[in-house]
């Protein structure tokens, strides 16, 4: 089993536990406005986002102007490439597979990322539940759950 598969299994298990305990926020509390594809690159190019996964784990990602990415979390760091494809924000890392995400803006400085619906094929819309949420570290976060830890 690859590291990516283990990570997804762990994330799914934590999500299931959070849902069973009633800790997952309802969609209406997290819904925002979809960021148009034409704006995604300008929003993230040269920016470092601090963020939180839906399981509560913190991360930090720097999106360099040249399309490279640097990722940090409590387990380590990774590098790779970021881009905008088919209206989605994509991150692909050197040591694991990547993915593309729909982006919604929640307030002035909060971006919520949604994976495409798995059963929807190439034209799938966003999944119901968000995967991560991030904010430009240079500005105060407008995310509903403010970070208590800075990576």
Could you explain how this protein is built, in words?
The chain has 151 residues and is α+β, with helices and mostly antiparallel strands. The protein has one domain (3-136): Lipocalin. Helices cover 20% and strands 35% of the residues. It is built from 3 helices and 9 strands; from the N terminus they run H-H-E-H-E-E-E-E-E-E-E-E. It has helices spanning 3-20, 27-30, 37-44; strands at residues 33-34, 47-53, 58-63, 68-73, 76-85, 88-93, 99-105, 111-114, 132-136. It has an 8-stranded antiparallel beta barrel. The longest helix has 18 residues, at 3-20. The radius of gyration is 15 Å and the shape is globular. Residues 1-31 have low confidence and may be disordered.
For the record, the CATH architecture stands as: Beta Barrel
Low-pLDDT runs of 5+ residues are 1-31
Strand arrangement in the largest pleated sheet: 2-3-4-5-6-7-8-9
Number of helices: 3
At the fold tier of CATH, the topology name is Lipocalin
Distance between the termini: 28 Å
String of helices and strands:
HHEHEEEEEEEE
Mean pLDDT, nearest integer?
78
Report the CATH C-level class: Mainly Beta
Write down the Rg.
15 Å
Strand content: 35-45%
Strand count, sense and barrel status of the largest sheet are: 8 strands, antiparallel, barrel
Classify the secondary structure makeup into a structural class.
Answer: alpha+beta
Helicity, as a percent range: 10-25%
The number of E-state strands comes to 9
Total domains: 1
């Amino acid at each position: 089993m690859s590291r990516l598969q283990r990570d997804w299994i762990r994330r799914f298990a934590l999500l299931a536990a959070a849902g069973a305990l009633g800790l997952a926020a309802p969609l209406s509390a997290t819904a925002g406005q979809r960021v148009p594809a034409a704006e995604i690159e300008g929003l993230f190019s040269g920016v470092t986002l601090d963020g939180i996964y839906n399981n509560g784990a913190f991360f930090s990602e720097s999106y360099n102007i040249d399309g490279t990415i640097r990722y940090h979390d409590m387990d380590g760091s990774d590098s790779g490439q970021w881009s905008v494809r088919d209206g989605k924000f994509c991150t692909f890392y050197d040591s694991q597979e990547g993915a593309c995400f729909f982006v919604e803006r929640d307030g002035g400085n909060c971006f919520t990322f949604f994976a495409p619906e798995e059963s929807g094929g190439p034209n799938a819309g966003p999944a119901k539940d968000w995967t991560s949420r991030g904010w430009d570290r240079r500005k105060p976060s407008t995310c509903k759950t403010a970070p208590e830890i800075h990576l």
